[in-house]
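Researcher: Structure prediction, please.
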Amino acid sequence: MAEKKSKRKTTKLNTIGISENDLWIAATALRHSLIVVSCDSDFERMRQVLKFTLESWV
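Model: Predicted structure follows.
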């Protein structure tokens, strides 16, 4: 009896309201210990999952 592989559950970024470019910016900032300067609410939502330095100069 062969077991079926379960399909990997995928989440579309646009369904959770985060753009792919913002995700890449945050990932790069995390990797290189940089500060993200933005007033984009996408970054605030991402910080709920993993903390990184975010500033708003507005």
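Model: The mean pLDDT is 85.
Researcher: Thanks, that helps.
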